[in-house]
Design goal:
By secondary structure, the chain is an alpha+beta fold. The chain has a domain of about 90 residues: 3-layer Sandwich (Rieske Iron-sulfur Protein). About 10% of the residues lie in helices and about 25% in strands. The protein has one helix and eleven strands, in the order αβββββββββββ. It has a four-stranded antiparallel β-sheet with strand order 2-3-4-9, with no helix packed on it. Strands 5-6-7-8 form a four-stranded antiparallel β-sheet, with no helix packed on it. β7 and β8 form a beta hairpin. The relative contact order is 0.23.
Length: about 160
């Protein structure tokens, strides 16, 4: 702002409103969250359920094809047509058809909440009701508009790991 001789340098109403608007926009963008948002008060504990997505799929015959991580679950823990949410790892593992296992991010693409369960063929977010298909993680019901990102999973024997 240009300084006028003899007048104090004070912000105009327009400058104050613009600054407040910018701060408000930053707050909104922060509230919308991202995949890195892990401590939101709206995150709910995860429970068993079905999930879907386009992650790498493996079958029980694919032994030895993994990333060497800790075993998330046994293949028998993941129901056919359903799945299970692993909140600590922020991943959902699904079994859309017998022997086909898929992994997806457990972070809702709408506002970054952790999905809570898998039931009725969808991965369900508790915050605003978004639902994602267990087969490919695509949006079955909004407000989310983007699918859940795929996470590679591997099956070795009867164990499922993150690849």
């Amino acid at each position: 702002m240009p300084e006028t001789p003899g007048l104090p340098l004070t912000p105009t109403r327009r400058a104050v409103v613009a600054a407040a608007g910018g701060a408000g926009l930053a707050a909104v963008l922060t509230a919308c969250g991202s995949d890195a948002d892990s401590g939101s008060a709206s995150d709910a504990p995860a429970s068993d359920g079905s999930g879907g997505g386009s992650a790498a799929a493996s079958s029980p015959a694919d032994s030895g094809s993994g990333g060497g991580g800790d075993v998330l679950a046994k293949t028998s823990d993941i129901p056919v047509g359903g799945g299970k949410v692993f909140a600590d790892q922020k991943v959902v593992v699904t079994q859309p058809t017998a022997g086909q296992f898929k992994g997806f991010s457990a972070v809702c693409t709408h506002q970054g909440c952790t999905v809570i369960d898998v039931s009725g063929g969808t991965i369900n977010c508790p915050c605003h009701g978004s639902k994602f298909k267990v087969e490919d993680g695509s949006v079955a019901h909004g407000p989310a508009t983007s699918p859940l990102p795929a996470k590679a999973v591997a099956v070795s024997g009867d164990g499922i790991t993150l690849a």
